[in-house]
Amino acid sequence: MNENYLIIGDDDYLRETEENRIKERFFPSGGGDLDHSVCSPDDIDTIMDSLGTIPFLAGKRVVLVREAQGLFERFADTILSYLEKPSETSVLILSTAGSFGKSKYYRRLSGLVKIVKADKPAPSTIKSWVRAFFKKEGIRISPEAVELIVELKGTDTFGIKAELDKLICFSGGEKIEAGHVEQLVGRSMKETVFKLVDAINAGDAGWAFEILNDLYDQKKHPHEIIGYLGWYMRIMQKIALLSGRGAGPEGIAAGLGYSPAYTRRLLGQAKKYSVGRIDRWVSLLLETDRDIKTGRKQPALALEMLLASFLQFHPGVELTALPIRRNPI
Questions:
Q1: Three-class SS of residue 38?
Q2: Is residue 167 a contact partner of residue 185, using CB atoms and an 8 Å limit?
Q3: For an engineered disulfide with 55, which of 32, 35, 80, 263 has Cβ 3.0 to 4.6 Å away?
Q4: What CA–CA distance (Å, rounded) separates 194 from 214?
């Protein structure tokens, strides 16, 4: 029976989840530290020694190699030869990014191991996962709150899981609404988003791209940044709608669900946007989101082009002199 695995996909959280799930299959009562090894893809000697070592307490020895694409760049023949006649007392788990699927070794390897997919889930799958998470915890969550979590965090499953854990502690067992998500999940990013749109509104391309690079340094993903820009423009739309209906500051604060002090700050931001400009920004955000989801543009490139599009509507900006971004994570 084949008990060797290739976990392949671009979702780090799902890859780690699958690694743990396989490990638990062979160590159902926990523990297993003496019979579990995590090896570097550069250390073929340790990998082969571990695979050849008889398990101490468990029925199998589990050997995990992360970033396994590096293993095949240098030691493909050794690993493939092993997998053709694997040890009956060892389990090899190879974990790698989705790009390995294009490797010349993938087809041969797929006949020697069990393939476990760990691709980034679609937003609809994330929403179902969020709802199931809170249902299991016995806590209600509004549809608007679910939508906002996915809007702000995208498909960053590691980030979403961390935020869900925080929301559980924050809720105290009460129903979670969109306002709670904005207050807790978005707190750390709101100030940065305000700075980014201030830079765009000032027509300062250098400042805008400096902030973008800072966000990359903070391990923020392009889709997450785009999600926060979408949240910001949705707030601007709400303010424009409420103002058009004749609402004053108190009425707008009530409509947004924010404190009067925080609403005053948002009203100051909203003065910079005509209805036409809001519509133009929203249209660009929707187009960018569509380009990423259909694969027409890589997320980082799509975000850079989005900022350039925002900036080009500001007089005096030299688009030919835009700064070069650092590579995002």
A1: strand
A2: yes
A3: 35
A4: 14
